[in-house]
Amino acid sequence: VIALDTDSVPNLAQSLGIPYEEASKIVPLVRNDDFVLERTGARPGSTWGAIFKLNPRVDDIAEKYGLKIKENLRLVVVGSINASRQGCLCPAIALARRFLKHSLTRKEYVVIVDSEAGAEVFGRGLAENFNLMLVVCEPTVKSLRIGHEMIRMGKELGIEKSIVIVNKVIDKEAAQKLADSIIGDEIQTFIVRFDQRLPEIEYKGLGLDQLPQDSFFLSDLRSLVESFILNQP
Description:
By secondary structure, this protein is of the alpha/beta class. The protein has 10 helices and 7 strands. Helix 7 links the parallel strand 5 (132-137) and strand 6.
């Protein structure tokens, strides 16, 4: 399994159990100027209109640049690949996009992309490679409506399977009823209950692996994986 963190403020490492002090020192791929120079032939921001490789080597990045979380799990902190924030298609963005597209077409791995919140992922030319999209919403009308719109956009790009995950749920019955009224019955929804111990975990900068194994939050996540995700073709 390869986990790719493409958020502009990456924090997936901490969620996966890497201590905050260590996770905060991770340099995202798009900000690693020396590595970008090595692969593209140009240092980001060095010159305007610099010539660089648009097809740099990326097939070894997951193994060389990724962090080994477990025996079968590796994390690559990519960072945001929104070119508008860089002002151009710079070497770092070109490298990151090529790596992501390469990763999403590798049949020997399960690739999980932690994307920026919102619809930005649909404009990156990546979402059409998704086999399954998990849309995480809060149990509110506003959040679920946004989630429903994201699923519509995903379908236009050819994403055949989507699951709405209603997170931070205190009243399971009420949340399910609200989700059904907005999302409908054609799209699968899954409820993840809120664990009151989560704020303390976050406050201490710890990973989700520090929750007790009897946590219903973890139990719900296991059910999600076993019932919905592992059964995907």
